[in-house]
Amino acid sequence: MFGKDRSDTMTYARANISIPPGHETGQIERGSGRINATHHFAPLSVTRLNGNEALAKQLANARTAQHEPLLLYVHGYNNTLEDAAFRLAQIQHDFDLPNPSLLFAWPSAGDPLGYAYDRDSVLFARSDLAQLLETLNRTTNSRIILLGHSLGSHLVMEALRQLALEGKSRPLAALDAVVLMSPDIDPDVFRKQAREIGPLPQPFVIMTSQKDRVLNLAALLTGDKTRLGRLQDNADMRNLNVTVLDFSPFEAGTSAGHMVPVSSPAAIRFLRRLTDGAGQARTEFSQFALQKP
Fold first, then answer.
1. Angle CA(232)–CA(233)–CA(237) in degrees, nearest 5?
2. Which of these, 104, 120, 156, 231, is most buried using a 10 Å CB contact count?
3. pLDDT: is 69 or 33 the higher one?
4. DSSP bridge partners of 71
5. How many domains does the chain contain in total?
């Protein structure tokens, strides 16, 4: 719908996506050619919205759990709009989220060879993500769970840093949680961003995996520099008040280990039990949390 071209204007739309009855947890059932909604994820409708007030009205009308936060998902490298929208629909369905979710679709090339283009697009889009967080805070007064994946995590940190440097504390205070999944960020850069943001929103969670083959490639593309999503201990995160969860014990699956927390059925079951406050999950938590020095 929007493509990879960069725009100086932010555009809103509402998409209704159907999930097939036989959907398997963690999977995105896709087809080619003519899509059969009984077997595949399918867009049922896409409607453009006219500005901030239209977005706020859509969210107000679609919310079913007024006291539950909204999920705002920032996709990663090499994602088309369809890729990102289907993934968010899968996350919303598998985690049984009651409210509509939001996708910040920054202009990725949607091409494995477009890594440099995507890194530049992250910088291009950071002001827009910061603006969206301000808009949501002003027009909906909603708590937000901000989920960044891969290179989208870098975009999340840049937007939070911009809000902090501009002294805009209200959108930061409205964040219910920040989660960076398989973050494609240089650890040195992350520490600098975190210190410039100041006290990080809480909880602040980094999800890593030593089985992440995509971040292996990113390390090569960036000069063999380890990425934050392959962090092996918590020593580098001292004094930042972050929780690091290592998903290496879970199977890497078809996502090359790059989306384990939302693509592995076992990981999804663990996270659902954890967020529900289940005692067994809290006991298991220590198995996956990297220990602080």
1. 120
2. 156
3. 69
4. 145
5. 1
